[in-house]
Design brief:
The protein is an all-alpha fold and 67 residues long. The protein has a domain of 46 residues. Helix content is 64%, strand content 0%. The chain is built from 3 helices and no strands. Helix 2 runs antiparallel to helix 3. The longest helix is centred in the middle third of the chain and has 20 residues. The two termini are 31 Å apart.
Length: 67
């Protein structure tokens, strides 16, 4: 089985480490955003409603949790 290892020089590369560590969480919120946009496009909903739904999804994601 193949393995990959990422290494970071902390604290200099703390931001890069945080991004790498939370990549799965970022992917999930992007999938949620894509589904919200697809839903609004498919059912011809108003763009304002789409933005509200996106803002709600991002708020639920709690951006400060992954920074």
């Amino acid at each position: 089985m193949a393995k990959a290892t990422l290494s970071f020089d902390l604290p200099e590369e703390q931001d890069d480490f945080t991004l790498a560590k939370n990549g799965g969480k970022y992917y999930c919120i992007l999938c949620d955003i894509q589904n919200i946009m697809r839903d609004h496009t498919k059912y011809d909903k108003k763009m304002k409603d789409c933005w509200v739904a996106l803002e709600d999804a991002i708020s639920e994601f709690q951006m400060d949790e992954v920074s």
